[in-house]
Write a structure and sequence with these properties.
D-isomer_2-hydroxyacid_DH, 7 strands, glyoxylate reductase (NADPH) activity, binds 3-hydroxypyruvic acid, NAD(P)-bd_dom_sf, seven-stranded parallel β-sheet, 2 domains, Glyoxylate reductase/hydroxypyruvate reductase, hydroxypyruvate reductase (NADH) activity, alpha/beta
């Protein structure tokens, strides 16, 4: 059960006449919340800092003024790639952290609802160059696949923090590893990657400036319950002769 369907061979499914249901629109809040958690974990190095307790690092560096430093959100520029429902929900949540400026890039300029902070529509190039935090919440399609390549990482600030809770295939992962190793960007936080599950010995797991989560964007209790109910409704609708699915992809 999922909202995304990039793991399904749609051509083959259609060719075989198989019905497919999905669970869109019900995981916006859960994914937005996780995105904010991942951003803060990455910028303030929470997993790294926590490990310093068990690996003895704290005892060596106790109260050193520059130990475990990371940048804050106050006054920063946050750039969102793909300001759809999830992107907007992320922006709404981040506005409580004193962000100085929101910018976004994507297919089209959005007319934002009044309860949202203002955000400036900019070119992809400007998003890369001006953002302190770049958050990827766009959908994966032919236009976005591999969008974050070596050139994109070179164009980012050296202090940029890159967060992806969308799909791993939006990123040229080898280029990201290179950018993290070479200090082309400061850090990355990924809830999505290639492949999933990521092998435990993958190079990404060895980088201290990369925070990894095992694709848990929608892993929130009530969200999963709603997804399960919707999937059950879809199944019943799909199996009942003459029935319809609540959310049918094809
Ligand atoms: O349901 C999906 O498509 C997800 O990616 C959940 O995180």
């Amino acid at each position: 059960m999922s909202a995304g369907f990039d793991h399904i061979n749609m051509e083959e499914v259609k060719r075989r006449g198989i019905k497919v249901g999905f669970t869109p629109d019900v995981l916006t809040d859960a994914t937005a919340e996780l995105t904010v958690a991942l951003l803060l974990s990455t910028s303030r190095r929470l997993l790294q800092a926590s490990a310093e307790i068990s690996n003895g690092g704290w005892q060596k560096c106790s109260w050193s003024p520059v130990w475990m430093l990371g940048p804050g959100l106050t006054g920063s520029t946050v750039g969102i790639f793909g300001l759809g429902k999830i992107g907007q929900a992320v922006m709404q949540r981040l506005s409580g952290f004193g962000v100085g400026r929101f910018i976004y890039s994507g297919n089209t300029e959005k007319k934002l609802e009044k309860h949202l902070p203002s955000a400036e529509f900019v070119s992809f190039d400007a998003l890369l160059k001006e953002s302190d935090f770049i958050v990827v919440t766009a959908a994966l399609n032919d236009a976005t696949r591999g969008k974050f390549d070596k050139k994109s990482f070179v164009n980012m600030k050296k202090t940029a923090i890159f967060i992806n809770t969308s799909r791993g295939a939006m990123v040229d992962q080898e280029a990201l590893v290179w950018a993290l190793k070479e200090g082309e960007i400061r850090a990355a936080g990924l809830d999505v990657m290639m492949p999933e599950p990521l092998p435990p010995n993958h190079v990404l797991t060895t980088l201290p400036n990369c925070t990894l989560l095992p694709h848990i964007g929608s892993a929130e209790e009530s969200t999963r319950a709603v997804m399960a109910m919707l999937s059950a409704d879809n199944l019943i609708g799909g199996l009942t002769p003459g029935g319809t699915m609540k959310k049918q992809l094809c």
